[in-house]
Hints:
Largest sheet: 6 strands, antiparallel
Number of helices: 2
Order of helices and strands: EEEHEEEH
Number of strands: 6
Helix content: 10-25%
Oligomer: single chain
Shape: globular
Amino acid sequence: xxxxxxxxxxxxxxxxxxxxxxxxxxxxxxxxxxxxxxxxxxxxxxxxxxxxxxxxxxxxxxxxxxxxxxxxxxxxxxxxxxxxxxxxxxxxxxxxxxxxxxxxxxxxxxxxxxxxxxxxxxxxxxxxxxxxxxxxxxxxx
Length: 141
């Protein structure tokens, strides 16, 4: 994959999906700015934790929120990102914009070596779900 000009080590978050039972996925969020992974259980917790991480990094700034000149504190580094892998699937998530009360960016499925752009959180979740369905079908065969 070619490096994009807006790439920054704080912009990419690794999403490790460790389990998925009855449609409820569990896993970890790993970002170089986090001292340790953030665990999540279910889609709602994933979205809330990811939104908080984006707010803490102040990138990308949400379109609908009033901005301030307060300095952004850069989080301390984490070297575990390159070693992280989910038991079911691993994704590198890059949120480039937060417009229209949603996220826009790209998601890379690391095991499948595929990358897709998404225009909304719903589209992101559908891309992740399609990968999980493929992986679970392989396990069942």
